[in-house]
Amino acid sequence: MTKSAKNASLRINSTISDERVLGHLASKLRATPSAIQQPKPSNLSSFYSPSQTTQSLSLRSALESIDTLLTMQNPSGGFVSYKLQGGSKLLENLNAAEVFGRIIIEYKYPECTTAVVTALRLSFKHNPEYRRQEIDSIITKAVKYIRRAQRPDGSWYRSWGICFTYAGIFALESLASLGEYYANSANARHGYEFLVSKQQDDGGWGES
Questions:
Q1: How far apart are alpha carbons 141 and 136 in whole angstroms?
Q2: What is the CB neighbour count within 10 angstroms for residue 148?
Q3: Could you tell me which residues come within 8 angstroms of residue 162 by beta carbon, excluding any fewer than 6 positions away?
Q4: pLDDT tens-digit profile of 120-162?
Q5: Helix or strand or coil: residue 109?
Q6: What is the mean pLDDT of residues 28-56?
Q7: Neighbours of 188 (CB within 10 A)
């Protein structure tokens, strides 16, 4: 047998083996549905039942996402991107990067905070009683941070995206989720006025 024929035979046998393994796993999963239904965390016990369908799995994922978000708030009320803020800002003096600042410790961000507030408020529509007291308290602290973080010109400083416009969009969306709009909220009104002032002649937005 030539070398190319041997290689072709090996590829065919490998494909057959892979298909057999996948078929075996699939048959096992079909035979034992409990294999894909993991034990539920205790704090989800009143909202998730292992006997429910894929829709329940989505619900479980949503509730676990809420659980994760609730661990990401700093004492200031602001939310971080991946871990709680720790250590002194003096540690930034150890930053060896030439193009990136503020990377040694984690910080609180208006975008993260406002996005979490919006997400938690939306969660009430589907699970209004899930950890409600905790969430209400966390939202109250977060909104205080959002108001403090607003700049005198009505904007919020961003960490990602187009500077003040990007953060302003997030902040105003979170305030709207709380029922704060131009007509009834000084913070919202100031934010809207800032955004309107940055509209360009062609209808788009920019800050340069």
A1: 9
A2: 10
A3: 205, 206, 207
A4: 999 998 889 999 999 999 999 999 999 999 999 999 988 777 7
A5: strand
A6: 46
A7: 22
Helix (H) or strand (E) holding 138: helix 132-149
- Where does residue 176 fall: left (phi above 0), alpha (psi -120 to 50 degrees), or beta otherwise? alpha
Tokens matching residue 50: 């292992």
pTM above the 0.70 mark? Answer: no
- Please say whether the beta carbons of 182 and 150 come within 8 A: no
What's the residue count for the chain? 208
Question: Is the pLDDT at 89 greater than 50, yes or no?
Answer: yes
Whether 188 contacts 179, CB under 8 Å:
no
The tokens for 140 are 């109250």
Question: For residue 94, what are the contacts with CB-CB under 8 A and spacing of at least 6?
Answer: 104
Q: What are phi and psi of 169, to 5 degrees?
A: -60, -50
Q: Could you say which DSSP state residue 131 is in? A: T
Instruction: Give the confidence band of 115 by pLDDT, cuts at 50, 70, 90.
Output: very high
Residue holding tokens 């034990």? 39
Place of tokens 């193009």: 99
- 66 in Cβ contact with 116 (< 8 Å): no
Main-chain phi, psi angles of 80, to 5 degrees: -100, 175
